[in-house]
Amino acid sequence: VQEEFIKxxxxxxxxxxxxxLFEGEITLPKNHQVDRYKIKSDILQSKxxxxxxxxxxxxxxxxxxxxxxxxxxxxxxxxxxxxLNVYHQISIESRLSFGNVFDPKQQSFFRNMIDPVNIKxxxxxxxxxxxxxxxxxxxxxxxxxxxxxxQLSVYPIANNHFVLFPAYLRFFMNENDSSQTNIFLTTTYxxx
Length: 192
Description:
Strand order of the largest sheet: 1-7-4-9-3-2
Strand content: 25-35%
């Protein structure tokens, strides 16, 4: 009887949900490197000029600092997109990029990058990149276990390292427990 049951269910497996998370260091060809100093200075200048993504003090984006497109920023965005396409056959295109600055004892809001009013135009992925961070910097991402229970996973981020994950997952940058200021770059991507 059990053998008949196994034959009946044999090829009927369907994957309902798979969460792909990518992490690592941005590696470039010899004699090339990301100019993190330029990205850092652009983010800090936006903070000094109070150029935030949103002017609404109650919005999460009020603590996100707008940054202008630059060669180092484009290098990071295109490297991630190209490597995801080559190694995982996922074609993506960058959209919004902004910086976050966390002084000691500060952390980000717990949020996702989905706009509930405009889900169709919301991003598919979000990438967090360590521009100038302490060795204990990390991103905390909320997922569900096999029973649907919320669980938090911690992903350390070092300088020149990134974590890329689906934009619908809630996340936050952990409290800065160092004496230095932590600076992150966040970029959203859409699937092509």
